[in-house]
Every structure is written in C-alpha cells, then in structure tokens.
Amino acid sequence: MAQNEYSVEGRVFRTEADYKRALRDKEVIDRLRAESEGFTGAKLEQLRDDVRNGKYKFYTLLGQDFEDELIERIKRGSQTSVGSKGKTLKKSAKGGKNAAGSKSRNGKNGSEVVVSQEAVLEELKRQEKRRKRTIFACAVVAVVCLGYFAVYSFFLQRTEASYDELLALKEKPTVSATAFPEDEVVINYTNDEDWEVPEVLDEYKILLKKNKKLIGWVKIDDTYIDYPVMQTSDNEYYLDHNLNQEYDKNGSIFMDKDCDVIKPSTNLILYGHHMQSGKMFGDLDKYSNKSYYEKHKYIEFDTIYEKGVYEVMYVFRSRVYSEQDVVFKYYQFIDAMSEVEFNSNMKEMAAVSLYDTGVTASYGDRLLTLSTCDYQEKNGRFVVVAKKVAKKE
Fold first, then answer.
1. What DSSP designation does 321 have?
2. Residue 353: predicted pLDDT
C-alpha cells in the first residue's frame, strides 16, 4: 500500500501498522455514531464522558477527534434548546406589556416567560462550570507536562555532560601503563578462567578507572551513536541507569551479560533505548531505508582490549518472544557451537532482513548486533547485525 493511501477520516498515518489501528478505531466510532444518532442532552454527555474516561479503547488520534465531535454535538444541542426557549419568551411577550415581569395580563404566558428565563440562566451557569473545569484540567495537564519535560531535560543534560567528559578523556593523548597498576584495570568478563586477559588499550585506561563496568565504545558516523558501552551481570540495570550508576530513564548502551569480549563470543549484542530525540539508539531505525545503509555501511565498535570495524549485513524487525514460542530468537544467538548452527542463524536473519546488502559471513567470523525497541508492535525490536572486517573499504 502506498504511503498516500494511509488515510482514515482525513488523517494520514505514517505506517501500515498505524493505519490498521486507525481502521480498528473507525469501526468502534462508526458503531457509537449509529447507536447515539438520536441521543441528546444527558445521554450524549454520558457518551462523551465514557469516551473521555477510556471506556472505549482507541489507539490513534481518531479517538480524540470523536470526542471533539461529541462535544460539538452537545454544544449544538444546547444552542438549539436555548434558541427554542428564546422563541417562547418572544411569543409570551405578545400577551401584554408586562409579559416579561413576574405579573402578567396573561398568567399562563407570564409563567412561560419566567420559566424560560430561569432555564437560560441555568444553562449559562452549566456552561460556565464546564468552562472552568476545562481550564482547570488543561492547567493540570500543562503543569504535569512541564514537570515531565523539566525532569527529562535534567536527566538528558546530566547524561550528555557525563558522555562529553568521557569522550574528552578517551581522546586525550595515551598514558603510560605504569600509571594504572594491574589491579586497577583488570576486567574479567569471560566465562573461561583459563583464557588469558589481554592488556587494556591505553585510550580506555582512564575511562576504565572511572567506571569498572566499561566494556567498550560504539560509534556510527552522522548519528548520535557515539557512546561508551557498559556490561554487568544484570541486563536490567542499565535500562534506567547511566554510566555513573545514577537513575536515568535514558539508560545506557550495554552489552548482553552472556557475551564475552575476551574469549570472544561469536556475536556481541548491544542494547540501547530508542529515544525520540535520537539519543541512545534512537537513530538506529534509519537503517530501515536501504539508501541510508548505502551511506552508513560500517559500525565502529572497540572493546577495551581491541579496536574493531564491522560491516552491516542484516537489518530486520523482530520482537521478544515467550519461552514457549519455537521461533528464531536473535537475542539468544551469542555463541555458535558448530558451523551448522552458525549457518542456520545466518539463514534465519537473511530471511527476515528488510533488504539484501550482499554481505555474508562464514563460520569463524565475529559479529556485532545492535538492538533497540520498535513501536510497530508490542515488544517489538529493531535489529542491525554486522560482521567484523579489517577496515572500511
């Protein structure tokens, strides 16, 4: 389906998934319109309150549009009611010069005039109350939004300052290894106790002294992705902590706890939040367009022990599955125990890749996987897989 066909009730939706949600919302709205066709007054207001309070679940802005439509219908009904009472007032006034007063030459008409005036005043009072409630609700929402924005900005600025500091330390001239005794820089993120731990690269020694959880650095040209990579035994920790172990909803880029950079693992998996600002792995889904890939084929990823350049092979969408689902789970592919297992995983990823890069891998190649959230489905993930190469071509 073409982009310009994703339109429902005058609104245009960017993706097919959003378009399908909009169609589902329209079915509910059409049904409610039919059921409420003859509604007026209290019934119509009750329906508006049900929509506003979430009795009917909407997944797109069509829900808000329908609520606005109900509000407009209520207003039109109120104006019609007031208008008809105004006509009664004029008609009653013809009964005599004192028809508008509490006394009238025509007692029947006089009582109609008094009742009409009271009804108008009562309606005006109700409208004023609704107006005040609306203003109050908007004020509360505004305060909450400003508070959220202030907290988010605080976390973002604090995190960016920390990353700038680390980047500056990383780019400093190399320091002598004697400045850092072995007991201050040794990191043993390996599952093999017999494997010799290599020396930490000079440019990461200062950074490692600041945070022993540092395991590497990832960078993609022309994006925000230029971050230190952390690793702990808990894959949940860095979802909401920064590199200084402070709470931060932006989290940090981190490596899967089961990956081993010393041995190393066949596939090193890095995770990061998909921030709307583009920070963390917010730019990663740009790889959904092959034209973007053509200009950004390489990912730089250093461990604290060795430098690395990786060429993008596969780009695909997936999700986190339940343990009972018998499907390919990219996040479980860390070590290939045989060539058959390796080739099987390559075949699975090639089958779901959004496009063919022409890049393949063989058993023995080392891989890098970048994973972030994808909001096209529940528990969705956007994944980029690359293989290690000697250098950029």
1. P
2. 97
